[in-house]
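$ fold --in a.seq
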Amino acid sequence: AVQLVESGGGSVQTGGSLRLSCAASADTANYCLGWFRQAPGKEREGVATIHPRTRSTVYSNSVKDRFTISQDNAKNTLYLQMNSLKPEDTAMYYCAAAFRSMRSCPPFERFGNWGQGTQVTVSS
């Protein structure tokens, strides 16, 4: 199975930006990749997913229009550009993978193969 390693987390103030990266150990052409997050005391939630061929994306309502997921297939790297950050975005962020269909990605709950996570902290 492909291994995933996240990086790019940090501490920012409200309204700031961060870009997370997720490096895959192998070709991810057959996988949808996604970003997830888990805040203390809360369940892990899906943030965004991307299809490697169609580049179609899905976002949770809480991050739509602020976050952008992208993928560099040549580098086997996934990104999450986070703008207009809010304190409620504070969480451990993980990337994950799921086998893709021809045109779409599975729902958030079908993803697995988690990385170790990278912490994002947004202060008010």
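$ fold --in b.seq
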Amino acid sequence: VQLQASGGGLVRAGDSLRLSCQVSGRAFSRSVMAWFRQAPGQEREFVAGIRWNGDATLYRDSVKGRFTISRDSAENTVYLQMNNLKPEDTAVYYCAADLAARFITRTVGAYTKWGQGTQVTVSS
């Protein structure tokens, strides 16, 4: 399984971005997919996750109501729609897969496959 993230950029506060994560490999259909982020000098943190069939999602509190995670099984792609971006959302965003997982976890160590990261910078 390989993950390829894209869609980051430099935007102003209040703007929107959509991140994409293209997944190769059959394991996508049975994996929990998630987005994490890491700001300079800080630990990587969970942002949002979605179960393999899309019937459950989980968000960190600070992005609820602004970010939406979704997946397109036909395209083997997971998305993170980010609206009303804030300067504190600035970070490198990573997509990750928890292969054959039944439930979404916020724990970094549970995710064994990672994309290369895409930079999101939000100016005030």
